[in-house]
Amino acid sequence: MEIYLYQGLIGLTYSMYLWLLAAGLSIAFGVLGILNFSHGALFMLGAYLAFTFYGVLGLNFWLAVLLSALSVAVLGAVLERFFLRQIYNLDLPFQLLLTFGFVLVFDDLVKMAWGGMFMIPPMPPFLSGSVPIFGRPFPMYNLFILFVGVAVAVGIWLLFDKTWWGRKVRAAAWNREMGGMLGLNVPGLYMVVFMLAAGLAALGGALSIPMRPVTPGLGTAMIIQAFIVAVIGGLGNLRGAFVGAIVVGMLTVYSTMLFPLFELFLPYVVMAAVLLLRPQGLLGGR
């Protein structure tokens, strides 16, 4: 039983990485109506920038994470203002084509700037130890990621549900034309929301660097899993994204432990079952 509980903690850690990525994807879709396929590329850029700030330039780890998230958030403002704003009223295939084009562009830019080799950043010294849990050493960094994931979930909930700005965002998402008639600066709200979504993706990428190699193509692998999470939980539903991330993370860890031959297969089976039995997702509305 202790082994299963220990693996559950590992699964929760992986779930928090998925949550940080899927949260931004859900915010962009739930508020702006944009299905942003390039969200994984923003995750990758956050990882590369954090690697550069921390592993190459030698900046403080916290400062490196903050700078990478802010840099990608600014990039998100540029993408929203000059590209996404032009396609809000177009059909979904146009959104997918445009955002998939960003994936190709950012992958090539990463290769030009950093090369195609795997990069392994150093672990921050103050988070490099371990603590005994269930008779086994559990990495301090994993505990840190668990704390960050929960803190971000609470922070997003407070921001969108308990602040006046969050009420304005929800009003603009419900009916952008009516919001504009009532005096809301809908374009400005949309830009800030997309910056928040991009920053969350970069935060997930920045926090992943001590645990996984940084490599071109990382974003494509991550966006597939983020879509699985979002579909299971309900596209555009933040609570659903959190639940979906936990489902996929735990399923991945326990399937690797118990059914290693089907580890890559089972999340897709669960997603297919959700699409067949509850197409709106576990917590999504019709």
Helix coverage percent: over 70%
Give a quick account of the main beta sheet: strands, pairing sense, barrel closure.
Answer: 2 strands, antiparallel
Structural class: mainly alpha
Percent in strands: under 5%
What's the average pLDDT?
91
What is the strand and helix layout of this fold?
Layout: H1 2-32, H2 39-56, H3 61-82, H4 92-114, E1 130-133, E2 136-139, H5 140-161, H6 164-174, H7 176-181, H8 186-208, H9 218-233, H10 238-258, H11 266-277
Antiparallel strand pairs: 1-2
Structure description:
This protein is an all-alpha fold and 286 residues long. It has one domain (11-216). The chain has 11 helices and 2 strands. It has helices spanning 2-32, 39-56, 61-82, 92-114, 140-161, 164-174, 176-181, 186-208, 218-233, 238-258, 266-277, and strands at 130-133, 136-139. A two-stranded antiparallel sheet has the order 1-2. A hairpin with a 2-residue loop joins β1 and β2. α1 (2-32) packs antiparallel against α10 (238-258), α5 (140-161) crosses α6 (164-174) and α9 packs parallel to α11 (266-277). The longest helix is centred in the N-terminal third of the chain and has 31 residues, at 2-32. It is globular, with a radius of gyration of 19 Å. The model has no long low-confidence stretch (mean pLDDT 91).
State the gist of this model.
The protein is mainly α and 286 residues long.
